[in-house]
Each structure stands twice: as C-alpha cells, then as structure tokens.
Laccase
Amino acid sequence: MGSFHASIVIVLLGFLMLVSVPTEAATKKYQFDVVVSNVSRLCHAKPVVTVNGRLPGPTIYAREGDRLIVNVTNYAQYNMTIHWHGVKQLRNGWADGPAYVTQCPIRSGGSYTYHFNVTGQRGTLWWHAHILWLRATVHGAIVIMPEQGVPYPFPQPYQETELILGEWWNADVEKVEQQGNLLGLPPNTSDAHTINGKPGPLFPCPEKHTYALEVESGKTYLLRIINAALNDDLFFAIAGHSMTVVEIDATYCKPFNTSALVIAPGQTTNVLVRADQAPGRYFMATRSFMDIPIPVDNKTATAILQYRGVPTTVVPVMPQLPAPNDTSFVASFSDQLRSLNSPRYPASVPLDVDRRLFYTIGLGVNPCPTCLNGTRLTASLNNITFVLPQVALLQAHYYDMKGVFRLDFPDKPPTSFNYTGTPLTANLGTSLGTRLSRIAFNSTVELVLQDTNLLMVESHPFHLHGYNFFVVGTGIGNFDPAKDPETFNLIDPPERNTVGVPTGGWTAIRFRADNPGVWFMHCHLEVHTSWGLKMAFVVENGDGPEESILPPPMDLPPC
Ligand SMILES: *[C@@H]1O[C@H](CO)[C@@H](O)[C@H](O)[C@H]1NC(C)=O
Ligand SMILES: *[C@@H]1O[C@H](CO)[C@@H](O)[C@H](O)[C@H]1NC(C)=O
Ligand SMILES: *[C@@H]1O[C@H](CO)[C@@H](O)[C@H](O)[C@H]1NC(C)=O
Ligand SMILES: *[C@@H]1O[C@H](CO)[C@@H](O)[C@H](O)[C@H]1NC(C)=O
Ligand SMILES: *[C@@H]1O[C@H](CO)[C@@H](O)[C@H](O)[C@H]1NC(C)=O
Ligand SMILES: *[C@@H]1O[C@H](CO)[C@@H](O)[C@H](O)[C@H]1NC(C)=O
Ligand SMILES: *[C@@H]1O[C@H](CO)[C@@H](O)[C@H](O)[C@H]1NC(C)=O
Ligand SMILES: *[C@@H]1O[C@H](CO)[C@@H](O)[C@H](O)[C@H]1NC(C)=O
Ligand SMILES: *[C@@H]1O[C@H](CO)[C@@H](O)[C@H](O)[C@H]1NC(C)=O
Ligand SMILES: *[C@@H]1O[C@H](CO)[C@@H](O)[C@H](O)[C@H]1NC(C)=O
Ligand SMILES: *[C@@H]1O[C@H](CO)[C@@H](O)[C@H](O)[C@H]1NC(C)=O
Ligand SMILES: *[C@@H]1O[C@H](CO)[C@@H](O)[C@H](O)[C@H]1NC(C)=O
Ligand SMILES: [Cu+2]
C-alpha cells in the first residue's frame, strides 16, 4: 500500500498552487529473519548473527506518520530483541526493545512482531539488537522521509545514501564480551572499523572490501551517517570536501560547514556534500576519538567518493582527520550544534523545571572471587550499578508486580565530593540494585550528568529511550548549580536522543515527560552498559484517555 496523499492542483487567478492533503497513513511491513551467516572480513570468515543475512542489515524506509510492522523471527541460538533507536514509541514501550526493560527476549525459534507508528519525527535513525553485544552485527538504518509534499528545510539533494560506521572483531563478539566478564577486565578492543560493513583498502587483505559512492560532478548528496560502533566515538571526514551538517538524531539543525565531524555510538548526523572538487577519487575515513590513555581500536576505515568516469586505478586522496585525542575539536564541533528552531520546527525547550536530577557517572571495582584479580570493573550512576531483572520492567510496572524493582533511584549522589578532582582509586565499590526513578506525567525534567574521576574520567554517550531531549548546557569540571544554569541555551539547543558527556565534565539535558512508560537510560558504549551504567525512568500515566500506556500486544514474548 502506498502513502495516500492527494495532490490537488488549483489554478486560481493565474497562480498555480500545489496543496498537499494528507489523507491516510501508509503501513509498511518488514520481515526480519535473525540468522547466522558466514561473513568474511579482514581475511577472517566467521559465523555472525545478522538480519536477513546482511551486514549491515536492511534499511527501513518510512514516511512521517507511517505505521510499521516488523516481524522479527529468531533463527539464531541467542535470545534476541530489536530496539528502534530514537523512535519515540508514544505510549508504546512494548515495541521499544531493550531486553528485560520493555520486553523479554525473543527466544531461539520464536517470533515477535513490533508494531509502531512514526509520529512527529523525520530523519535518520537506526535499529539494533538490544541484548548482549549482538548489536555489533545486528543493526541497520531507519530513514524517515518528511510527509508527502513537505520539502527538507535545506536544498534538495540530488541523491542520498546511508553510511553506517561500525566495529569488527575477528573473534566471536560474544566470546570477547564473555572473556572480559570472566576476567573482570576490559574486553579486547575491535580489530577494525567499517563503513557500511566494509573496512576499506588500507587493511592488508587480499579481498578488498570497500564501499564506494559514485557521484556526479556538481551535484549535491545527502549522507545519513550512523555510528553503530559498540564502544568507539568516531571522527569522520572526506578528503577535499566540506560537509554541511543539517540534521542530528532525526532533528533538523542550523546548517554549518565543517571539514570533519565527530559522532558517538548511537548518534546520527546528516550532511550535505557537493561534488565540487576536481573529478577524482577521495577517501571518506573514520577513526576513534579517545582523549584518555586507555587501549582503543585506533585503525582507520575508509570508503571512496568516486567521481563518475574516473578510472578506479587512480589512488584516492586521504583526508586529514583530527588527532585521536583532539578534545578541543570535539568541544567546538558540539558547540556549533543548534536546533533549527524555525516556525515549522520549533524547539519546545522546557523553560521551567519541575524535577531536577543530578547523576554522577562512575567507574568502579567490585569484588569478584572468580575473576583474574579477585575484582571486576564496574560502572554506576549515583553509585548504583544497575542489575537487570529476570522479567521485563515494563510488564512488572504495567501489571503492578511486586519485588521486581524499587522506585527509589536517588535524585542526587549519596555523597557529594570533588567529582572531577584528583583520581579516586580507593573505595571504588558500588551498590547493586534494580532501582528506578518515578517521574510524574508531563512534568519537566532537568538532568545533569556529571562525569567523575572515580578510577578515571572518561567521556560517555548517554541515550534516553522514549524521548528526545534538549542539550541545554555542557562544561568541563564540576557542574556549578549556582553559576552554570545562567549559561544554558534555552532558545535553540540541540535536540537529540544521545549526547556525549565530556571527559571530566558534565552535560545538562531537559525534556517533558509526556510519554508514559518505562524508559531505559544508559551509556551507549556497550562495555559500560554491560558494567551497569544504566537505569530506567517510570513515567506515570496521565489522567486523559490518551495519556496512558497502551495494552500489551498478544505476542509479547513471555519470560
Ligand atoms: C565460511 O567462508 C569461508 C570462506 O569465505 C569458507 O572457507 C568456510 O568454509 C565457510 N564456512 C562455512 C561454515 O560455511
Ligand atoms: C512472523 O514470521 C514467521 C516466520 O515467517 C511466521 O511463522 C509468523 O507467523 C509471522 N508472524 C506474524 C504475526 O505474521
Ligand atoms: C498507530 O496508528 C494507528 C492509526 O493510524 C492506530 O490505530 C494504532 O493503534 C497506532 N499504533 C500504535 C502502536 O500506537
Ligand atoms: C583477546 O586478546 C588476547 C591477546 O591478544 C588473546 O589472547 C585472546 O584470545 C583474545 N580474546 C578473544 C575472546 O578473542
Ligand atoms: C558552506 O560552504 C558553501 C560553499 O562551500 C557556502 O555556499 C555555504 O553558504 C556555506 N554554508 C554555511 C552554513 O556556512
Ligand atoms: C595504535 O595502537 C597500537 C596499540 O595500542 C599502537 O601500537 C600504535 O602505535 C597505535 N597507532 C597509532 C597510529 O596511534
Ligand atoms: C595527544 O596525543 C599526542 C600524540 O600522542 C601527544 O603528543 C599530545 O600531548 C596529546 N594531547 C593531549 C591534549 O593529550
Ligand atoms: C589485574 O591484573 C592484571 C594482570 O595481573 C593487571 O595488569 C591489571 O592492572 C589488574 N587490573 C586491575 C583493575 O587491578
Ligand atoms: C577539585 O580538584 C581540583 C583538581 O584536583 C582542584 O583544582 C579543585 O580546587 C578542587 N575543587 C574543590 C572545590 O576542592
Ligand atoms: C558507593 O557505595 C559503596 C557500597 O555501599 C560504598 O562503599 C562507597 O563508598 C560508595 N561510593 C561513593 C562514591 O558514594
Ligand atoms: C503538558 O503540559 C503543557 C504545559 O503545561 C501543556 O501545554 C500540555 O497540554 C500538557 N500535555 C498534556 C498531554 O497534558
Ligand atoms: C532466553 O530468554 C528466556 C526468557 O527470558 C530465559 O528464560 C532464558 O534463560 C534465556 N536464554 C539464554 C541463553 O539466555
Ligand atoms: Cu560510558
């Protein structure tokens, strides 16, 4: 079924007017078969979990207002769930996907059909597995076009394409995760980065797996860039070509030109690129950003911007990426991000705050008698290492099941200290718990995420499910509640679903809690998520008929 929009041409006093009348939303159906496929990269062939045998998986194309029906059938040996990253899932947490948060997993041999509507959103998002480390190979793009007849608020590109940045391990990624957990140490870093699943020709392998984008001289292209890496913030640049950033996390932003960009796991960035250089071959390249001395995959993945007609024997030009530890590039790039805030796409920033939250991000060390050092690395928010339950939190909330979680997640850390002062390396234990924070329906929330020097400082991309939020402020050092709010941008702050908290700094976000449900919030570095850097909000129902959680679907997987 196509999208039903009647275009009525009215000839009036010699003026030709095109009026687009939306009539009915379209329904788009997808079949996702979770299968194990033999994939070969970097001279290594291995069985990996994929959707429909593809890496990256299929792109979901939708139009704002569409209904999506995705039947996920699990033929793999692992339990599976799929998260539609950035889709707001209004009243519909049942389709959100994080395992043991909004649903129990789809077991091997089972199916679950995700039903959701794309309401009031357009742009680039993505989907990924939300269980274990399986999103390393189970991910793909979601492209939401504006409603029929509604143009982009930037020049119409000649063509558009998705660029999915990823990470590849030669070993089985679940073995890597398990080994880290057994030892209590950080798991092995990846062996390569990839662009659309391919590492590019800089890797010494006979099979050259390279993505190439053919362009025509003088034309403009829209690149939808997605960071699907598990653990790495990434820089991205194209040799010789400037990029105009026009959208982040499926919200339009004020356009600006840049020679490179930084993108954290979970984020998306749309850029316009004009093929305005001498016809040739230009590398698009991506490499990690890491501004503390810990092991990281520092290898560069490349793809090729190929001008039509240029022989493929021409050696491509390499772009200049920022230095791997270029914190100031990241700060100034982030500083340029502003919501478009136009009459059609206003930035509805909450100006008054009903609920103020202050969460410290900490790394830690807990006892582990079976681990190599007798300890395991851990992570916490307000000193709580989140423990996933055996049944899903949303069901426990909806059916009022007792004993699954507590609603006493603290609004501030148990003790205040010099958060980003000298490294604290003693007394690094945390308390374990399944503790959630209750938020009143439609209240406005301000959350300050404060990095700490417990063990060490590090940057963390935080993702909130069920909402977009406004990034009203950020800074280095300790957040000062007396002074810092004066500097908040409440006019056109960037609106997104994943934001980086800088190394040894803080980030303040605001959102209106108008979507009832149980919503996960976590660091999008999978290594930290598995160490417990996560929590969930319980947003209560409102009083109105359209202000409560929808009933669960019949095929919701049981625990
Ligand atoms: C996987 O592919 C490699 C080469 O591409 C091949 O050598 C190997 O036999 C395949 N394994 C399976 C289980 O099909
Ligand atoms: C989902 O797909 C599986 C496998 O094809 C099929 O058995 C099942 O009936 C489908 N579910 C729905 C609701 O269509
Ligand atoms: C999606 O929208 C349709 C109306 O177009 C509605 O019937 C359906 O309940 C909605 N589904 C969800 C999950 O919100
Ligand atoms: C992790 O790396 C170490 C050192 O290179 C290696 O011995 C080990 O086998 C790797 N672990 C996995 C699960 O691949
Ligand atoms: C970006 O650069 C192009 C020329 O390369 C220029 O036409 C355009 O105005 C610039 N856009 C912004 C937002 O600065
Ligand atoms: C990348 O990391 C490896 C191992 O940590 C190191 O030996 C190498 O010098 C690094 N390469 C670059 C270009 O920084
Ligand atoms: C970044 O790394 C370079 C090379 O390793 C080093 O010389 C420089 O001091 C580092 N800069 C910062 C700000 O840490
Ligand atoms: C754990 O032990 C290893 C090897 O014995 C050592 O290199 C590492 O620093 C220790 N890590 C911690 C967190 O204590
Ligand atoms: C916090 O620690 C930093 C660095 O160790 C120090 O410069 C600063 O004065 C301390 N702040 C407070 C309030 O003690
Ligand atoms: C965190 O909790 C543990 C266990 O209760 C405690 O030992 C530690 O002092 C706490 N740390 C902080 C920074 O509050
Ligand atoms: C939420 O509160 C705002 C501001 O008071 C109000 O405009 C809006 O109608 C409320 N929304 C709902 C769904 O109650
Ligand atoms: C798969 O999920 C089910 C339901 O939660 C659970 O009982 C089972 O232990 C899980 N299997 C594995 C291998 O984790
Ligand atoms: Cu993190």
The first helix runs from residue 173 to 183.
